[in-house]
Amino acid sequence: MNLERLEQTWRELNQIGYSDKGVMRLAYTPQERQAVRRLAAMCEARGMSVRMDASGNLIARREGQQPHLPAVASGSHLDAVFEGGSYDGIIGVVAAFEAICSLDDQGIVTKHPIEIICFACEESSRFGVSTVGSKAMIGELDIDGVAGLTDRDGKTFRDALSECSLNGWPLTEAARAADDLKVFLEMHIEQGPVLENADIQVGIVHGIAAPTRLQVRIQGKASHTGTTPMDQRQDAFLAAAEIGLILEAAALAEKEHGTVGTVGVCVVKPGAMNVVPDTAELKIDIRGTHVSSKTTVLNKLYAGFRQVEAKRGVKVEWTMLSAEQPVLLSEEVTQSLEESCQALGVSYLKMASGAGHDAMNMARRWPTGLIFVPSRDGVSHHREEYTSWEQIGVGASLLEAEIKKWAVVLEADGRPKYEDNERTQPEQMGESA
User: Fold this and answer.
1) Measuring CA to CA, how many Å separate 165 from each of 79, 158, 221, 260?
2) Hey, what CATH topology would domain 210-323 get?
3) If we measure between CA atoms, which residue out of 301, 369, 357 comes closest to residue 326?
4) Which pTM was predicted?
């Protein structure tokens, strides 16, 4: 593992879309696609075969001694939120690439092929739907649901793909067979303060909280602020504010389960100081690892919609953008990660992830592991996001050890160097929590 080279790869990719305000690499924009193409060129220079699937996922492959065997895959994403941080997603991609470079340096041959997967549209910032590439890869993307989604500029999801020369519609062409992969491993920054506060080097994730996301439209009535009595208004903004407080109260009541709710977007129109707002558009995110707890919050929110309608004389309409299920990761892979930590002398903590990741979709089809490295002050999705290179190096070394284990390193005579944990069919798939 060459930490200096790892950092250089990160810097080279992060030059694309970087600014003093943060990283701007929204999904399917020229900046994000340029970064993906640059990664593809790096992989080709290493002798890897490279292909792009219909959804825009980049798949780079280092062939194994037995190419017909399921591949060991690792990766993450290069797209970012608006004015995002420099570590989210990209760290998992460059760590997977560095693992390949390290194997090349050592002249290592593996029995299984190894793949780097750079997923498309992991972040929801542009179209309001997340982990598009990994959903497409497992064949569970709601294609009709995403086709007409629009970004802030009114551009549809389908048009955005066409502009990137991704014309393989329908996206069902991106789906892969169950025997394509042996295991999937992702490394990511924690995006929270737990590891740093506990002074632990890595987190081994056993479960991922999945988001339920709604788009809400509140229709009130515009009127003059100076001539409309307070008790005769149909103020869409105040209705939106009340809905936000209802969501907060519902999530706080589920604190013991760690369920959270957020109004991340609130657009009020017409936006004039002397006009009572007639419309408000909200985007709401509810997430947790307990299905029943999430459902409780959602039901209280629905009841709140009716209460606000009756109280304020407005109309509340909503659309479910996504309703994903929490996922438990493979116990077999989690145990393997623990054993590697112990062998490497790395301190670790088994933990749940409150943020969604591509790993949660991959776990529905293939045994999957997720490694966290600490985030300073728990900051993420912001230009002040930071993880030290020493911490990244620890996580990357753990990732390389796991890749070597699952891909099966071979001696010169073709025999496995270490214990062969070969499985022709995965014994345990991801389960819904």
Assistant:
1) 17, 11, 43, 38
2) Alpha-Beta Plaits (3.30.70)
3) 357
4) 0.79
